[in-house]
Backbone:
């Protein structure tokens, strides 16, 4: 796992909290914010976007990832931070399976994922490999 400084982690979590404010979640009320840090210090933020046709919505993690990739950051992603919950509350929420798989296209198993803990009491650090062992990859195609 790449080691981030405590300042980098706190900044990334602050960015995720800020991104959460842009969530469009009228159906679930569960707002999620994500922030992806690139090696050059650039941060891309994303919020979940729901749709009346539920499968059309997209998670905050993939919004941030796709923004980074669409700006040319395909192999220099350094870490992801996320937070989510209803109202002002924050609960521990790890990326869903689709987000884990999407991240695995551009990030290796050591990619750090930082998840804000319930009630904003610190955070949990993990890796993409811990969350998605045996990821499906282009190597099997």
Residues:
């Amino acid at each position: 796992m790449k080691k981030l400084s405590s300042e980098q982690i706190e900044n990334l979590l602050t960015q995720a909290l800020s991104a959460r404010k842009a969530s469009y979640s009228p159906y679930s009320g569960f707002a999620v914010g994500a922030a992806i840090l690139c090696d050059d210090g650039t941060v891309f933020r994303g919020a979940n976007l729901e749709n009346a046709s539920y499968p059309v919505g997209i998670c905050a993690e993939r919004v941030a990832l796709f923004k980074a990739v669409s700006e040319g950051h395909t192999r220099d992603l350094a870490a992801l931070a996320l937070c989510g919950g209803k109202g002002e509350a924050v609960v521990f929420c790890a990326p869903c399976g689709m987000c884990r798989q999407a991240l695995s296209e551009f990030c290796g198993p050591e990619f750090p994922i930082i998840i804000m803990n319930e009630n904003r009491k610190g955070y949990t650090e993990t890796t993409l490999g811990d969350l998605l062992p045996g990821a499906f990859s282009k190597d099997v195609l």
Remarks:
- The chain has a mean pLDDT of 96.
- DSSP finds four helices and five strands in the chain.
- The first strand starts at residue 30 and ends at 38.
- The radius of gyration is 14 Å.
